[in-house]
Amino acid sequence: MSDTAYVPPKVWTWNQDKNENRFSNINRPIAGPTHEKELSVGKHPFQLYSLATPNGVKVTVMLEELLELGHKGAEYDAWLINIGEGNQFGSGFVAVNPNSKIPALMDHSTNPPTRIFESGAMLLYLSEKFGSAFMPKDLAKRAEVYSWLMWQMGSAPYLGGGFGHFYAYAPFKIEYAIDRFAMEVKRQLDVLDRRLGESRYIAGDEYTIADIAIWPWYGALAKGVLYEAAEFLSVHEYKNVNRWADEISGRPAVKRGRMVNRVWGEKSSQLPERHDASDFEKVAKED
């Protein structure tokens, strides 16, 4: 199909059967639930409803890092939300996240329970709840963390919904779209590479929620995991990003967090649901 074949109509309408693909049951132009479905609730203070996409991994890594620090109040149950089957459109999930996107988090240690949606908001909430964990005390240094956190939230859609979609998922290849977003993603990698040439971590010398937010997206991209685009984007060129990505991936909490709600890849990397710390040991024994 030619890049110039499509002429937009005066008024767009949703053709549900057009260009049917793996996202046909996920994307729609209206919000709200499609069916009644209550969410499961486990025994721990935090109830996470998610999938191990980069945004989901941010939160499971944060929770595992808090547990690694000894914050027992960060114990959590992680329930699998299969977005391919439309679990995110159940009434219970929509009540937690009206945007119907994973992850969604409930804090049952409060009365009434507190809902948190959007992964960046979860990182900030969890940091504040547990004594500014993974956040500098100095205001200027905190501002650097805030800036990089917002950078990730604003930049990742170009990587995921832009480059990732048109390069890996679109039903046909569009040269203009792939070139447009490949250029932007390489610019973003260069931004990170220059920054990480100045400091050990994203926001400075301390490991912070900025690293936790950015690593699942750009660390995975740099190591060739995301969209299988390593060769296409020449990710080996970004030496500082690769150095940082390797250091983060070696952290015990990160190794655990990236497994939670994962249902693809090697069996040893999958923990579809997490209800106890011992669940990781069970995966190791089954491998």
Shape: globular
Order of helices and strands: EHEHEEHHHHHHHH
Main β-sheet: number of strands, strand sense, barrel status?
4 strands, mixed
Q: What is the multimeric organization of the chains shown?
A: single chain
The level of helicity is: 40-55%
User: How many DSSP-defined strands?
Assistant: 4
Quick synopsis:
The protein is α+β, with helices and mostly antiparallel strands and 287 residues long. It has helices at residues 54-68, 91-96, 119-129, 139-169, 175-196, 209-222, 230-233, 239-249, 252-257, 279-286, and strands at residues 46-50, 76-80, 104-107, 114-117.
Label this structure with key terms.
287 residues; alpha+beta
List the helices and strands and how they pair.
Blueprint: E1 46-50, H1 54-68, E2 76-80, H2 91-96, E3 104-107, E4 114-117, H3 119-129, H4 139-169, H5 175-196, H6 209-222, H7 230-233, H8 239-249, H9 252-257, H10 279-286
Helix pairs in contact: 1-3, 1-6, 4-5, 4-6, 5-8, 6-8
Structural commentary:
The protein is of the alpha+beta class and 287 residues long. The chain contains ten helices and four strands. It has helices at residues 54-68, 91-96, 119-129, 139-169, 175-196, 209-222, 230-233, 239-249, 252-257, 279-286; strands at 46-50, 76-80, 104-107, 114-117. A four-stranded mixed β-sheet has the order 2-1-3-4, with helices on one face. The termini are far apart.
